Amino acid sequence: MAQPPEKKPDRHYDFGRMNKWFAWSSLALLVVTLWMVWDDYSKPWKRFQSEFRDLERQQLAQRAEEEQQRLDNEEISRVRDRIAEEERLLEEQRGQMREQEAALSALDKQVYAADATMRTTKAYLDEARFLYEQALQGDSERRREKTAGEVEGLEQEWRENRKSVEGLTELRDDAADQLDRMRADLVGAEKQLATLSGDLDSLQQRVANLDKGLDYLLLNFPLMDFIEPDLKIEQVMIPGLFHDLNFTTVDRVDRCVTCHVASIRNGFDGEEWQQPYRSHPRMDLFVGASSPHPYTRFGCSGCHGGLDRAVDFARVGHSPLGEAEKEEWIEKWGWEAQAYLETPIYPAEHSEAGCFSCHAAEVWTPESEVQDIGRELVSRMGCFACHMIDYAAFSDMPRPGPNLAKVAAKVDPAWAYKWISAPREFRPTTWMPHFFFEKNISGAQNLERQTAEIVGTVAYLWDKSLDPEFPPAPAGDIERGRDLFDTVGCTGCHLLDAGAKRDDYFPEINRLHGPNLIRTGSKVTSGWLFAWIKDPRKYAADTRMPSLRLTDREAADITAYLMSSRDPEYENLTMPEVDTGVRDELVLSYLQNTLTIEQSHHRLESMSPDEKDVYLGEQTIRKYGCWGCHDLKGFENAKPIGVELTEEGSKPLHQFDFGHIHDVPHTRHDWIRTKLLDPRIYDEGKDVVKSYGELLKMPNFGMSEREVDAVTTTVLGFTKESVLAKRRAGQSARSAILARGRKLMTLYNCRGCHLVEGKGQAIRTSIEDVGMLPPNLAAEGARVQADWLFDYLHDPGQARLRPWLTARMPTFGFGDEEVNTVVAYFAAREEREPFLSAPERPSERELVVGDVAFNMFQCAKCHPAGPGAETAVVGSGELAPSLLLARERLRHDWVPHWIVDPQSWIAGTKMPANFNQLETGEYVSPLGSAIDAPMFADQKRRMMDYFGSEEELKTHLADAEYVSSVLRDHIWWNLGD
Amino acid sequence: MEAIRDLINFFSYPQWSFTLSLVVFGVMLWSRKLWTKKGGLLMLVAVTAFFCLSLLDPNFRQVVAKPDNVPIVMMVFIVGYFLWLSLYKAFRNDELTEAGEPTFEKSEVEDKIFTWPDLVFSEFICMVILTVVLVIWSIALQAPLEEPANPSVAPNPSKAPWYFLGLQEMLVYFDPWMAGVVLPGLIIVGLMAIPYIDTNPKGNGYFTFRERKSEIVLFLFGFLVLWCQLIVIGTFLRGPNWNFFGPYEFWDITKIEPLVNVDLSEIIWIKLLHVGLPSHWFVREIFGILLMAAYLFVLPVALSKIKFFKKYYEQMGPARFYIGISLFLVMMLLPIKMYFRWLFNLKYFIHIQEFFFNV
Predict the structure, then answer these.
(1) Which of A410, A450, A884, A902 could form a disulfide with A911 if both were Cys (CB 3.0 to 4.6 A apart)?
(2) CATH classification of the domain holding A167
(3) For the whole prediction, is pTM greater than 0.90?
(4) ipTM score of the complex?
(5) Which residues of A touch B111 (CB under 8 A)?
């Protein structure tokens, strides 16, 4: 049986101590709870927002102060005095004023009461109407009558109410007017004061809004900040720009502005504004509401990369610039590399990489700098030839290097050996990279191996090469050749400059479209050169080198000139001796890839030394993928050897092999940069574990830092799809036409001679007279007729449009498809339909006026307009195209616009502005007033036959639109017929 | 210093550490001195000193200090503490019983106390303190949340939650079918079966070692050596590609271990008999099948004849005995297989890839 409780101690524990435990633990709980709330509350982004608020307030306060000082204090005090004076005057009529005010106040009350009554009545009236309508549905006659009566009564009442309201309102307005009249002067003065200090007031208001008062504190206090805090996460949802999460895609939600508070606002870009408190540097192009990439549609991370949703500095994928910054960030923010984040924020120097996500379909991206150069470098260096890059800009490209099918006829094998060994030593600007004697293949044995490989390669090429005979070139004159070279158009694509380096031509890379022709005399035979420049397509049907339609004499002169550039070091060369042991060992190792060890030994023994060389050459070509750039017999269908780069920018970092290089930061862009600067660097320390054939093969292009940066930017942009097709650029039919045209323009280097979209005219270095430069192709699509352009591009030699030019539009031998691409490009660029119907013949009057105007403006002074060009009287640099061709060449809808305002079509054109522009923007023809001059009396008489009055004639002659169109008609029908 | 580190790294490789742990396990149960207050303190100091000194090594620190791994560090200490507490009480009780005095528990039972306030109040205080600890923990160590998963970059090593790391470690030695389904299933079934197999009432309600020697040794072997130790190995010593790394070794993702494991059939047919592998799976695997059959079906019967087991056979009766011994043998399959792997590079006893049956 249990003992009664009072006999045993009540408590097992000492409750004094238990209570103390309880007290202390509860206190600890309270403290950690507060700590938890604070920890949850104190986010760095809140600090940024709060700090920016202070800074902005400071800036506004300073502006307010400046505004205050700027204000003309004298004027303000004068206005203030006036107000005081007015008030004093009013004070004198105080009694009257008060009476008036009281009357007004009483009236106000009456109006209010009457209005309320009216509204009440109206409410009852509405109800009564409803009840009546309801009664109509029912059977009760009595009810219908009763409700109808009520409606009528209430309507009556409401009308009376309304009358009384209107009457009272009128009285009240009269009273108010009277009072206003008494105070008019005072009110005027006060208004003046408000206008004077309006800016200041609004500034002060804005400053006050940014004050951190009690309301700010309360609204942003921990646990209170759920109501309507000032400090809050700012985000924008961007449909169409997504993350690919394997089986689904998630739209981006950018929160960058939470910390980069000022980035979407203008005006925070002075020295004093540092990140994260800076405006975006190109608000006109990005972020700004009227820019092509407004913030609300494009956000930030779509272009910059990074983790859109994160708001913690360490977690959003910020990329440090260099090790020092990285250390600082780790120290300050606990920054760490995000192992699973596919695209960290692009570092500043590669920020244009982001353009590619949307602009991959375009060959040029307007306004881009680095990205475009990178793309051009990728094309010119032929990266796509070894690495598949599945974008429109790099697919269906011709091979970047020359066709080697007839190489034996062109150069000497010993020269070829020396060239392949080190192309840049012969020609420092060449795009052909160094494959051999790189630092990952050093050591005496490896040097011997490479010698054997190059000798083998040359042997293979010569074995497969055709060897047509070229008779020696006729003798030419070097000086005349030099002049021709400089003026006829060669310099649009070629240099002849022993001191030129590739980097000198950055960013105008198209200056290096064709080879720098130094030392040509030590490379080729004059017979070959003569035949080549006479007709390049005869030697290689697929060449992009056009024909300049040179005469034999011209070709001989140019040949003489080019052959005069020589270098004895590259003459009378002999092939080096090959260590046959090393060669056989290499041949054997290749044979063993497909044969057994025994079979391969047998095979080797059965091969002659020449066969061994050719076999080794074939294998070497296979190893280095030479067919990527050169058309090679035996490799017509071989696949490129490099890693595909289409999604290189999304390739996980762990798949980049940094080898034993430890001073390269582990980022994608640093890996790519380092690789491009020294393609074999990651082989360092691998000579033991890799066999000769396994060593890295990417050749060295001798790239400069700038070139590397540009290419890295472009390659970083090769990412996995992250934008819906309809949100990408270049989706319209017009964009596709533009892209095709731009690609063709780049391939054939139109910019070597012409200005296309504002860039180009490389040829200006040898043709200094601006008037002698090939034409600017701005607005070409608006200017010329599609069928004329089509014919002209097919055979530019048929018509000499600008006979005074020394440079010739070359014959490229375009096919219809290529020509159509160009024609469509120009039309699309100007948003014109390519074809238009012929204009109607105007009346006789217009033709006469046109003829007169043509003479008055002295058009023929520059434009050869008669048969032959003799009519023009200015120097050749001032000449303009012959107008005899205008009718079949130009678009009739364009010519009048051109005549009125040439500069708006082609900035810098020498066509004078003949019409005066008024302040309203309209143009006036000067002929209206000039016709009165005695010298034009005959013309005036001639025209008067067609006009009713002199007034009418003058009106017509002053009308720019009329005059320009009759000029066009004159050119069309008088000159053209 | 370097030499000591290399030595510890060397001996931490599973073949050594497992053997060592067997030795330590034996010594621990044999030496009663450890299970006194002084011994407990000594062990605590020793383990803590090892941890603290090891933390000086950057590679060790990197692994141990990962927020994910903190619970396992705590587990080491908590398991140690409760092991000490139970054995301390068990040995003390044994001494008390020997001296003819009542056990701890018995004397405690005399003291009846009230639920309110004694129990509820003290529980409440515990709750408050635990909440404080959890809040501090959650503030101080951030939850290891990372950026969104990237399908093209899997974490390497990919590890199971810490309580499953013992199972994951078993995958090194067994086919997933065994390590992932059969063995874990038998662990649960076996634990559930304990009260039905072990009907011995001794030790009910009080701690004792002497009266339940075999049962305690058996259970602790399974729990400490085969479960907790594998979790510790899986957490701290398995790095990228599930390769083994000593506690002070750098987790080099490119580490390569030669894969030279062979099946029992290859050892016998090729290495011993110098004939090729028979083509039919049954003939090929006949030795493994016979071996397993003998281990699982003949050995229990044979064991029941041995003196040590005979006692239990008689106490428990055939049904309980055979079930118990089978579960025991399946458990022992794990250390046996481990040793075969380390000694003979054995891959599988039975390897029938024709229908994915591997033991």
Answers:
(1) A902
(2) 1.10.287.1490
(3) no
(4) 0.82
(5) 12
